[in-house]
Amino acid sequence: MPQYQYSGRSNPCPICDRTKDKDCRWNEEVVFCHSHIDQDAQVNGYVYRGATNDGLWGQYFAAVAQPVKPVRPRRKQDYFYPSRDGQPLVKVTRVDQGTGSKYFVQQRWDGQAWVKKLTPESEAAGTDLSLSGGTACDRSRTAHLDGGRRRLC
Fold first, then answer.
1. What is the rounded CA–CA span in Å between residue 11 and residue 23?
2. Beta strand 75-82 pairing with 46-51
3. By the 8 A CB rule, do 34 and 25 touch?
4. pLDDT on residue 42
5. CB within 8 A of 66, min separation 6: which ones?
6. Which residues partner with 145 through β-bridges?
7. I want to staple 24 with a disulfide (CB 3.0 to 4.6 A). Which of 7, 63, 91, 99 is the partner?
């Protein structure tokens, strides 16, 4: 069991600043606060995780910063999905706006040009589509339309 520090006259609790007794205790991983048991004290750097099983302390853990993903630059990227016989069927375009937001455009091949909106045939669940485009995907994997959503296997 890890060694705990206790609140006291010269050692205030990091959550409630308690100094009158040894009711609060903590270590590097967790703070057990005796003042804020059933509610979050809203202390920066700590996350409230509820009361202990015996209801004597509120549990606070150090807040871990989530890694920030870099914002993708402004660009369009096309992914092509042919039918089983190798003919063009669906084209999905990912549009990154350079601000951290993105959207997708789905198009179908009508025999002469790419047309917005898919047909029920091209959306049908369980239709096997081979992945033939895009640099972000492994081209050896197969995509299946699953209820209108692409699922890579």
1. 12
2. unpaired
3. no
4. 87
5. none
6. 127, 150
7. 7
Encoded tokens for 112: 């002469």
Alpha-carbon distances, residue 14 vs 5, 24, 129, 132, 143 (angstroms): 11, 9, 56, 56, 51
pLDDT tens, residue by residue, 88-133: 999 999 999 999 999 999 999 999 999 998 877 766 633 444 444 4
pTM equals: 0.43
Do the beta carbons of residue 7 and residue 22 sit within 8 Å?
yes
DSSP secondary structure string, the chain? ----EE-BTTB--TTT---SSS--EE-SSEEEESSSSSS----TTEEEEEE-TTSS-EEEEEPPPPPPPPPPPSEEEEEEEE-TTS-EEEEEEEEE-SSS-EEEEEEEE-SSSEEES--HHHH-TTEEEE----SSS-TTSEEEEETTEEEE-
Tens of pLDDT, residues 7-35: 999 999 999 998 988 899 999 889 999 99
Task: Work out the average pLDDT over 53-75.
Answer: 89
3-state secondary structure 77-88: EEEEEECCCCCE
Residue found by looking up tokens 């049908």 in the block? 124
Nearest C-alpha neighbor of 131 from the set 117, 120, 145:
145
Contact 79, 134 (CB under 8 A): yes
